[in-house]
Design goal:
Layout lengths: L1 H9 L15 H4 L32 H6 L5 H9 L1 H4 L13 H11 L4
Helix pairs in contact: 4-6
């Protein structure tokens, strides 16, 4: 029995799963995946710290490629509040998330996607 417990202790721990998506994320999930595949929009997997307009295989607008700053909680919250004001000329057809609580929930969720 001791040998079995010792052997189990040496096994690697599974990667921590992302937090459950908040209900407000449903409006994002219509176009964006969180699993690494691109759709109408680029995947949001690993977005924190990633340079805007840089996810492989997605065709970004000139505005998003030019913006090119790394995403963090502050920049994502600003973008979600008003995408056209945050990155003028971007082509995401979305007016933004007006509710600050919903934006915070979405940004906190995105931070868990590694």
């Amino acid at each position: 029995m001791r040998t079995l417990l010792f052997a189990a202790a040496l096994l690697p721990l599974p990667a921590l799963a992302a937090a459950p998506a908040p209900a407000a994320f449903a409006q994002c999930a219509a176009c964006h995946s969180v699993n690494g595949s691109n759709g109408v929009g680029p995947s949001l997997k690993g977005i924190m710290g990633r340079k805007a307009g840089s996810y492989p295989g997605f065709r970004y607008s000139r505005a998003m490629k030019t913006y090119g700053k790394p995403w963090d909680k502050t920049s994502l919250a600003a973008y979600l509040a008003n995408p056209q004001q945050a990155v003028p000329g971007n082509t995401m057809p979305f007016p933004g998330v007006p509710d600050a609580g919903q934006r915070t929930a979405i940004v906190n969720y995105l931070a868990t996607l590694k």
